[in-house]
Amino acid sequence: MMMFKKINLFIDVIELGSFQKAAQRNFISQRAVSQSINQLENELDFKLFTRGKNKISVTHAGREFYLKSRDLVNNFNTSIDNIQKQQQNQYQDLKIGYFSPFESTLLANQILKIKRDHIMKVNLIVSEESVEHLISDTIAGLLDMAYIIDYGHIDDLLGDTLTKQTVYQNQIKIGISQMNPYANCDALPIDVLTEYPILYYSPEESDYIRNGFASTLPLSNNSFTTKRIASIEQMQLLVATDTAIAHYPGGLTAVPLADKINFKSLKNQTSDYRIQAIFQKDSPKIGLIHQYLSSFK
């Protein structure tokens, strides 16, 4: 780096035309500039300037060295600047995972709000994963934060490493085709659960989702038929065509064929849920995470 400092001084002398102006630009004495140039000439083993009384002239070798070193320094400074920006940007990426198209609706709305209102400068990177993977990847630091549906027992999965903040809450709904005789009821009778297969969405087998889904239903496991569906499109098709009914997080149903489906509560039955943002308690991006979460308020 000392060599680059001397070369930068040399370039200043050439471009400003004097040792004195180069000294003023760099806030050092003229003598310090002269000493630096002498040291550079000794290291290069050729003269950069011829010195006369009150006058200096650049040598031919000095002119050639100036052209080469100027490009070298410019490239070097550009590389340093790029590396510094990369390091600064490293902590401006926020990697967020989500489980299903339902949470993605909430996530998309929040990202649009942040961009529209210029709330924060952040590069948001999103990915869809199973609940179990969301938790393990957040613990491992592969994700900074994850959106997970909470039926009331998510704390059992967080352990000592993770914490949570509620970003949305509503009630579980049963989706039923608009063709169904029950479609226009204010609330669905409990018996409807025994008359149709009850679908729930999960792209992978998940004990957490299966048990959480079952906990929202009022009957024993032997009273109804449930089925996991790995494709949201298939689930919507089966419900819209009155082949089955399905379990939905109320308020987050902006999915295909939703306009062919009515979303109802069960009579005399309410099941609350929350969408939790989970993240490491001691995340290196905890400030960025809190800034993001504060935008929900």
Automatic annotation (TrEMBL):
Q: Which domain of life is it from?
A: Bacteria
Tell me which PANTHER family the record gives: HCA OPERON TRANSCRIPTIONAL ACTIVATOR HCAR, TRANSCRIPTIONAL DUAL REGULATOR HCAR-RELATED
For this UniProt record, the keywords arranged alphabetically read as follows: DNA-binding, Transcription, Transcription regulation
One of the Pfam families matching this protein, by short name: HTH_1
Q: Its Gene Ontology molecular function terms?
A: DNA binding; DNA-binding transcription factor activity
The entry's cellular-component GO terms read: protein-DNA complex
Q: Does the keyword Electron transport apply?
A: no
Q: Which Gene3D superfamilies match?
A: Periplasmic binding protein-like II (3.40.190.10), Winged helix-like DNA-binding domain superfamily/Winged helix DNA-binding domain (1.10.10.10)
Q: Which residues form the HTH lysR-type domain?
A: 2-59
Provide the coiled-coil residue spans: none
Its lineage opens with: Bacteria, Bacillati, Bacillota, Bacilli, Lactobacillales
Identification of the protein by name: Transcription regulator
Q: Which InterPro entries match?
A: LysR_HTH_N, WH-like_DNA-bd_sf, WH_DNA-bd_sf
- In which family does this protein belong, per the annotation? Belongs to the LysR transcriptional regulatory family.
